[in-house]
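Pipeline run #58 for the internal structure catalog. This entry was flagged by the ingest filter as a single-chain record with no existing model, so it goes straight to prediction. Upstream metadata was stripped on purpose; only the residue string is passed forward. Reviewer on rotation: M.T. Logging verbosity set to normal.
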Amino acid sequence: MGEFLSGIYLWIKSAHLIFVIAWMAGMMYLPRLFVYQHQSEKGGEAERYFIQMQRRLLKGIINPSMTLVWVLGILMLIANPAILSQGWFHVKLTLVVVVSAIHGFYASSRRKFEKGERPRTEKFWRIMNEVPFLALIVIVIMVIVRPF
């Protein structure tokens, strides 16, 4: 990779990391809003407020961030396809796919919450609040330490 392309790669990598942070922040906050809605009065003002917050968070931060994470990640793979053969990358990619699936599950659940339903239990959402963070821990270790 030439010096110019190497510089562009670092900008892409930086943007990728910025959007990973935004995506994960939203993925950890959305289930917390589900917990708060569980605790609010059905049909009340607080519930309407939490529904609005959930929609804004998902559509304004989580969805665009995930999209940019994937686009920028693919651009990095195009620029450096050698990482496709490395074990650490397989673990990382698997977990990114899992977090993306959780993202889809959150989006589906948000639509149910918007209808006034309360899918799952408050305890379930408290646990789900931690799952993206646990995946993120392993992903960061894979990228930095590269144990495989």
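catalog note: The two ends are 24 Å apart (CA to CA).
catalog note: Residues 102 and 141 are 20 Å apart (CA to CA).
status: ready for reviewer M.T.
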